[in-house]
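Q: How would the structure tokens look for this protein?
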Amino acid sequence: MLPVFDKHLIKLILLVLAFVCSAGSIFAQDVYYNSFNDYEVYTPMSRSRGFKPRIKRESIFKPTPATAINSDGLIGFFVGNTAELVDRGEMVLSSRFKYNVLSSAYGRAYNSAEEGSVSSFETSLTWIGDWAEWSVTVPLHKWDLSAPRTYGGHAKSNNGMGNMKLGWKASYLRDHSYYRGAYGVVAVFPTGNPDSMLPAGVKKGEELKLFGCLTTSETDRAKANIEMGYIINNKDDDENRFIYNFGLSYEATEHVSLISEISGEVQGGDDKDTMDLILGARFGATEKIKIELAWYRNLRTYRAYGWDDRLQAGFSMWW
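A: Here is the predicted structure in token form.
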């Protein structure tokens, strides 16, 4: 027979072990291990409780408010695509509203009595797959223009759908010590009427954007990004252009990231190029909702319907 003290001690040990096993079973639901890219440990008890395993992917880049959807419908800054790695198996709904006043034609300012404006509303649906991102973006535009001396004709206005975008970006490339790379393609289809949507920047014909990007971890709070690529237009060789984007984000607080970008397009010689400075911030309203505000300043322009400043506001919602 065991002494009474020993019996109580054994009971206590058994109770502690039972508690640890039970807690460990629950805790395993949210514990993830990553030796190469991703995998997850969970228990049969998790299944009996209706637990659906999530796939966490570890990366040199921690999630910040700056990680959201860009104008191509892919993970990036406001314009540029980044190589940041996010959890797979998630859908992202995002929308962006853009507004700018028209002020020039191919770098030549309008006459004093001429004016115009463009409002655009873009909606993207993005799927984060196992090895790539997939997206579809549908834009709606509304514009007003009164510049008869510059373009000829009378004051006009119109609204309707722009050209739809289908985006794809590879996300399977491995992390290096302080940087990641990615590449992708964005196809633009003429779902809008270019003859009626030209002031909104809609191009004639189909376009194919091929790009590569490199994102680096500068500090615990800052990351830099460079994107380069080429856009091919199947209707007009003069619309083919080289593109570039240099971006930097800084995590000011846990819920606020500041972003700056230099974005441009080059159509060849004779100063046929554009360059924009973009400054803005993204806010983590919740873990799944991010809000953004941005201001564009045109530095160089070769646009048929040019502008000096553009304002942007939007959100990205994850689930």
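Residues 1-6, 12-54 have pLDDT under 50 and may be disordered.

DSSP finds four helices and 18 strands in the chain.

Upvote if useful.
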